[in-house]
Amino acid sequence: MSEQIDEILMDAEERMDKAIAAAREDFATVRTGRANASMFNKVVVDYYGAYTPVAQLASIAIPEARMIIITPYDKSAFNEIEKALRDSDLGINPTSDGNIIRVSLPQLSEERRKEFIKVAKNKAEDARISVRNVRRSAKDQLDKLQKDGHVGEDDVRRGEKHLDEITHKHVEHIDEILKHKEAELLEV
Q: Which keywords does the record carry (predicted)?
C-alpha cells in the first residue's frame, strides 16, 4: 500500500480512538447505583458568566458507596453549584449545611435502571455512528486518491479492507463498553 493510504488509515484509526474515548466519558456520566465522581463531569455551573464543570469548582469525596460530599473551593459559588446539581439530569436531590453539599444516591428502581440502560444504548449508538462517519470520510479520501490516479485500484481495495477491519474492531470495542455498563447498571 502507498504512503498516502497508510496516512489515511492511521488518521482514521486515531479519530476512531477519539470517538471511543468520548464514548467512555459519556458512559461515565450515566449514573449507576454506586457513587462515582465522574458522573458530575457534564454538570456545569454558571460561575461569573463562564460555564464551568463542578469538578473544577469543588472537591468531590465519596465516603460511602452511595454518598457524595461536594465541598466548593469558593463559597460564593455554593448556591450555583447546588442549583446546577438539582437541575441536572442525574435525578439527584442535594442537601447542604452551608459548607458542604451532600448527595445521597437512592437505590435505583428497576424502572430507573432500564431508563439508564436506554441512555447508555443511545450513547453507544452515537459512538458507533461517529466511528462509521470516520470510516465514510476515510473511504471517500481513498476513492479520491484512486480517481485522481495517485494509487491503483488494488491498493485502494486493500486499504478499504484494512479500514473495514479497523472499523469493526472499534465498533466491537464500543459494544464491549456498553455490555460492561449494562452489567454495572443491573448490579444490585
A: Cytoplasm, Protein biosynthesis
